[in-house]
Amino acid sequence: MVSRTTDDYMALACAGCKAVNEPAFWAGFDRASSQGFYDYFRQITEYEPKRAAKFCIDHYCWLCINPKESEDVGLAREVISIIPDFIDCDNVLGIGEIGLNKNTRNELQILEEHIQLAVDHDQMILVHTPHLEDKLKGTKLIVDALSNHSSVDPSKVIIDHVEEHTAPLVIDKGFWAGMTLYPESKVTPNRAVDMLELYGHERVWMNSACDWGVSDPLSVPKAALEMKRRGYDDSFIDKVVYLNPAQFMGQNPKFKLS
Amino acid sequence: MSEKKTNLVDLGFMDARIKLIDIAAFLDRIDRHEQSDDYRVAALKEALPELLSAEPGRAARVLNLLSDQSNEPVSESKIQGAFGAPSPEQ
User: Fold this and answer.
1) Quick count: other Cβ atoms within 10 Å of Cβ A14?
2) Are residues A62 and A22 in contact, defined by beta-carbon separation less than 8 angstroms?
3) Where are the beta strands (DSSP E) in chain A?
4) Cβ of A253 under 8 Å from any chain B Cβ?
5) B73 → closest Cβ in A104, A194, A231
6) For a designed S-S bond to A55, which of A9, A94, A219, B46 qualifies (C-beta 3.0 to 4.6 A apart)?
7) Hey, what domains does chain A have and what are their CATH numbers?
8) What whole-number distance in Å separates Cα of residue A151 and Cα of residue A168?
9) What is the pLDDT of residues A93-105, one digit of tens each?
10) Are A182 and A149 in contact (CB under 8 A)?
11) Where is pLDDT greater, at A145 or B1?
């Protein structure tokens, strides 16, 4: 988790976390060149797994140019061209987190090119849906782009950051739905458990956001506590917080828990 | 699930109460500072009545009211961030 300190790794290890997933994402600023992405891909495939291993946590990652930087189509295509150099790294699970940010034509074009890249290399896909007022429109465009590609297997695609108004759009089309938990501004542990009650717990992956903004790496354990408080038993909680993500990631033979 | 039904009001009332007071205080604050004339405040006020709806799905409806309802991709965007409610231009 390039944006988090070792304090967070320690907290995760103490909470029983076995593995982290790190999709390639925005650095908080726009990188100046594809060389910046090359170095970033080296960081998440070579260095970060070693940092996580010091806390006995397995580290997996995904590769892409993120939606916030996809408006520059020339840069995006340069980055897409270097991704195949890293796909065979031991901890790479697929292409992600691709998606949309402001729902522009350029972003959509690059999303579609990433989808094709994933299909060409038989990779799983992890998708970011836009934030706040842009999420509904972006989710519809993303679901359409994926559904319109005849070679995309929905069971190998997770569409992340769902909320109450977008979860059905994702789940009804056979994709996995990711609920990204934040302490403020977006989905909280309480609402995530609400969504399980509304939409079921199959093909749902609850995850703690660990990015450059205000995040709580222990959001998933807190959601587990909320489930316990509501009366859900250990087998249900284990399915949601452990077996479900393991099932999704296990579709890539590289995924093995230590 | 356990046989003993959890009292969800016991579990969540104090949290909901403080959030309601926070919203009321926010509206008082922006009135006091004469900053209520903002499209985001208008969007918030449009969504508030959903809290009193008898129909389930209030959270989804509030989110929909705070969402861009258009369907076509835009030609470009000069900003990267989002603001929580659709701007009048959207």
Assistant:
1) 11
2) yes
3) 19-23, 58-63, 92-99, 124-128, 157-159, 176-181, 204-208
4) no
5) A104
6) A9
7) 6-249 (3.20.20.140)
8) 22
9) 999 999 999 999 9
10) no
11) A145
- Tokens 């006020």 — which residue? B45
Of A134, A231, A236, the CB nearest to B68: A134
Q: What are phi and psi of A130, to 5 degrees?
A: -60, 170
Contacts of A8 (CB under 8 A, 6+ apart): A1, A210, A217
Q: Distance between CA B61 and CA B65 in Å, rounded?
A: 6
Determine the residue of chain B that is closest to A144 in CA distance. B71
> How crowded is residue A46: how many other Cβ atoms within 10 Å of its Cβ?
13
What is d(CA A97, CA A89) in angstroms, rounded to the nearest whole number? 17
Residues of A in contact with B89 (CB under 8 A): none
pLDDT of residue B42: 97
pLDDT in tens, A32-71: 999 999 999 999 999 999 999 999 999 999 999 999 999 9
| List of chain B residues whose C-beta atoms are within 8 Å of the C-beta of residue A71 | 76-77
* Structure tokens, A240: 């949601």
Q: For chain B, what is the mean pLDDT?
A: 94
Torsion of CA B18, A222, A92, A250, to 10 degrees: -130
Locus of tokens 């703690």: A208
Residues in chain A: 258
pLDDT band of B2, cuts 50, 70, 90: low
Question: Which candidate from A134, A164, A233 shows the least CB-CB separation from B2?
Answer: A233
Q: What DSSP designation does A87 have?
A: T
Asked if the Cβ–Cβ distance from B1 to A163 is below 8 Å, we say no
Residues A103 and B74: beta-carbon distance below 8 Å: yes
In angstroms, what separates the C-alpha of A223 from chain B's closest C-alpha?
Answer: 14
For A15-26, what is the mean pLDDT?
96
Distance from C-alpha of B38 to C-alpha of B40, rounded to nearest angstrom: 5
Closest by Cα among A35, A99, A109 to A68: A99
Q: Which of A209, A220, A256 is nearest to A17 (CA)?
A: A220
CA angle A211, A254, A209 (to 5 degrees): 15
Predicted complex ipTM = 0.89
